[in-house]
Amino acid sequence: MTSNTGGNNESDSLNADELSWIQLREEIGSESLKNEETFKEKFARKFYENPFVPIGCAVTASALMYGLWSFRHGRPQMSQKMMRLRIAAQGFTVVGLMIGVGISAAK
Fold it and tell me: Which residue spans adopt a coiled-coil conformation according to this UniProt entry (predicted)?
């Protein structure tokens, strides 16, 4: 019987290298999880940085929903006004987004 001690050393070193990589990944992963924001925290931070975009989105969605409701209930004039308001709100949102990007780029 021949013993293959050279192979065991190579296998031991491979296992040690592999284990060190696994440990490193776990350490890096745990660090990134500590710094991760919740949805509410991220929304609050983004809203504080550029409040025009979420406000514009809310106005756009509200005008669309009320305009569709008015159209369904036979009020074409109100529906037309709401669709025009929706277009204006979309423009406001896009301008707010561009201003926010410009301010972020300037920092």
Answer: none
Residue type, 58: A
- 3-state SS string for the chain: CCCCHHHHHHHHHHHHHHHHHHHHHHHHHHHHHHCCCCHHHHHHHHHHHCCHHHHHHHHHHHHHHHHHHHHHCCCHHHHHHHHHHHHHHHHHHHHHHHHHHHHHHHC
* Cβ atoms of residues 27 and 74 within 8 Å: no
Q: Which two tokens stand for residue 92?
A: 């406001």
Instruction: Return the domain boundaries, the chain.
Output: 10-49, 51-106
Hey, what are 2's tokens? 């021949």
**11-52 per-position pLDDT tens digit:** 666 677 777 777 777 777 655 556 788 899 988 988 888 889
Q: Which pTM does this prediction carry? A: 0.61
Residue 2 has pLDDT above 80, yes or no: no
